[in-house]
From TrEMBL:
GO terms for cellular component: cytosol. This is ADP-ribose pyrophosphatase. Transmembrane segments: none annotated. Keywords: Hydrolase. InterPro entries: NUDIX_hydrolase-like_dom_sf, NUDIX_hydrolase_dom. Residues 40-177 form the Nudix hydrolase domain. It is an enzyme of class 3 (hydrolase). Its EC number is 3.6.1.13. It comes from Saccharothrix violaceirubra. It comes from the Bacteria. One of its GO terms (biological process) is ribose phosphate metabolic process. GO terms for molecular function: ADP-ribose diphosphatase activity.
């Protein structure tokens, strides 16, 4: 069976912002015609399931304007420096958001946020061997963060109860529980990140 090639015959920019871009692609469909596909370009991001020796994971409570409320998440941040490796971005965000460093890092999961319309993919790390350091508050949003240590099993229960809805947090917590229980194996911290978004980063580098 020959698989159809969904090639793009044209593309136009609708909006290019600070964090995302919106373009419309005209894509060849299996019947021979074309269809418009709206694509939100994103820088990509990292998130960290930081689990201490007591089995507690650090969660943050942060305001998210599209939802109009504060929600529980993992410490996370954009891959907004083109030359920065995901692991280094994760280390930086862990210090900035919750004042922690970690001596052990592995890759848990890569999460496509909503692949029907955006190329955003978040890499979630598991961090162990935690130590507290002085937190680096760099912006108003970070100053408003509430951080809390929650037993990992309790955090997973929060996700299953709908109390944690952030996609990277839900998948990261479930993956961390599976890895730490010995039911799954994590990848190395520097594992290839084949689906890291690149389109919007290329725009910013021009």
């Amino acid at each position: 069976m020959t698989r159809h090639e969904f090639s793009t015959v044209s593309s136009r920019d609708v909006h290019i912002g600070r964090v995302v871009g919106l373009r419309v692609d005209e894509v060849v469909m299996p019947g021979g015609g074309t269809a418009s596909r709206e694509v939100v370009e994103h820088l990509g991001a990292v998130a960290v399931a930081a689990v201490d020796d007591d089995g507690c994971v650090t969660l943050i409570h942060q305001y998210r304007h599209p939802l109009g409320k504060r929600i529980w998440e993992l410490p996370a941040g954009l891959l907004d420096a083109a030359a920065e490796e995901p692991l280094e971005a994760a280390r930086r965000e862990l210090v900035e958001e919750v004042g922690l460093t970690a001596s052990s890092w592995v890759t848990l999961v890569d999460v496509a946020a909503s692949p029907g319309f955006t190329d955003e993919v978040v890499r979630v790390f598991l961090a162990r061997g935690l130590e507290s350091v002085e937190r680096q508050v760099l912006g108003e949003e970070e100053a408003d963060l509430e951080a809390r240590q929650v037993p990992l099993d309790e955090a997973v229960a929060m996700a299953l109860a709908g109390e944690i809805v952030n996609g990277a947090a839900v998948s990261g917590l479930l993956a961390a529980q599976a890895v730490l229980a010995g039911r799954a194996r994590a990848r190395p911290a520097d594992a290839p990140f084949a689906d890291r978004p690149t389109a919007f980063a290329r725009r910013l580098s021009v």
